[in-house]
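Tutorial handout. Part one gives the primary structure; part two gives the three-dimensional structure as tokens.
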Amino acid sequence: MADINQKLAALSMSDSAPNGSGEEPSVKKAYVPPHLRGKQNVSTPPGSNGRGAQSKVVNDGTASKPYHGGRNNYENDRGFNNAPRSSGWNVNDEVPGGRPSRPFSSNRGAFFGGSSRREYQKDPSDEFYSRADIKARDPRLETKLYGNQHNSGINFDRYDDIPVEVSGNAAPLPIHSFEDSTMDPLAKSNVKLAGYSNATPVQRYSVAIVTAGRDLMACAQTGSGKTAAFLLPILSQNFSDGATVSDTPTDRRSKILPISLILAPTRELAIQIYEESKKFAYRSWVRPCVAYGGTPISDQLRDLERGCQLLVATPGRLVDLMERGRVSLASIRYLVLDEADRMLDMGFEPQIRQIVQQADMPTDRQTLMFSATFPRNIQMLARDFLHDYVFIAVGRVGSTSENITQNIEMVEDVDKRSVLLDILATDAGIAQESPDPAANLTLVFVETKRGADMLCNFLIDQRFPATAIHGDRTQREREFALQSFRSGRTPVLVATAVAARGLDIPNVTHVVNFDLPSDIDDYVHRIGRTGRAGNIGKATAFFNMEQNRGIVKELVEILQEANQEIPGWLNHCREQADFGSFRSGGGRGRGNRGRGARFGATDYRREQGGNSSSNGHGSRPSGGNNVYNNSYGNNSSSNNNSNGSWF
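Part two.
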């Protein structure tokens, strides 16, 4: 037995010693505690993640290409913007041992609007220290909400010269500024935090009209601040009125009772309005929520059950929640229909009528309708929803001519891709590798979903970082594409009409109509994605006479109104369209634009009664008198028969 023990000991010593051949001994490595792993004195091969795969080294600039598995790193399948991840989801690298740090969420927390788990205490020097309905400031939440503000463009002050047409019984005069308005002090404070230094015309009129308790139909050009125009006065009134018993968080056995409802046609627009509402509802008892299709309804229900005073929703998802008995509209004080004409164009009229007329919504609510265009048939439908309303139309002349340079190019279908490559190759933000790719974004519009995917793949093959968005993409894919575009990771976005309405994407400097739409209103909305809030923008359209004959007349009129250069060949195309108009009747655009319209719509009540009062609501007050056409600060009366309309 002693001999055996000696042999085993000798064998152990020989195995642990070098074998003289230059190879490492085949002995099991010593156990290394987790907190010592990765140190310099540990013999783990560099770059190893302990799982037999090479991970990306983040500390130096000589990292190798990351692998395609695990949680440690990932690679964009398009080959752009490879980005490292930490050694696990939500792992805080600064915490010893890699303990996961819980992501901060404005929805997590206690009372109503939610906050971080850390409850901050009010500072006695806080201007709202004595108001029990206002919570303490939260620096982390302020950074989250207001950290990346988009500054207004150099032409923002020129909005003062935009003409505004107002009609209605005793229409309130506009405010001069947010600070001078009668809005709640908390609303004014949040406006400052959001970086709103000047009020746009639609905001000046809307704040005054909504504060006065009037219904409103507002027609304003894209990028004019319509979202803040209805959010600010509504939330200000909520702050002043204070919380009610029904505003407390609910449970699964009770119905959600919002007091403000905002309907939007698309999921993207609903999310955008929701994000803006969180900025203006900061520190208040009002908790915004959003509900839209394409995602599990259970997740949205859980969020609603924690309390919802302001609900942003698409019509289809809201009807679903109502039919499930989870949402009641009995407490609604404010109803907003944003992009109302688009909702009806998309076939949402039955759902809207069910929500407004057949549900338990109070009839004494305040109703607001906003859009960039209000065709006459839409206004006729609006009379069923609005009562003694004030109509405002903010002119496009000025903002379009000063901020957006429109170029129309004659391009055949076979040449479109090569011309687009030439445009992108000269783009400063894409071709010259701008230090801030998010500062120069290009939005390309096509007509079909298949065309969007094909063009996106083509651009990627040509080494242009691009992504696409259309109706067949899942909600997660659409949100990821928009976030990638906003951040500049993919500064080219190919989109169908799903992104044409209402979306406010900062820093879009160029809009390309790869396929021109058949409706001139859609063209107006598309080019409105650039030149927003006074910023300078450029719009390029590929024109084909065979395909775009129906809108050539109205396209020329838009260029004339905006003082844009009109190519000679385009005037020739217009003459040809005029010659054949008695047969085709043109496109689906606004028929009487030729009278020199300056606004996106005209109050139909004026057409019914001329210079006299007209009763557009049957037994309701007409609102047809007291019409004035003015620029901000100049409320001079004008003839009821304006210089023309787009009808």
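Part three, for discussion. The first strand starts at residue 73 and ends at 74. Residues 399-587 form a domain with the Rossmann fold fold (CATH 3.40.50.300).
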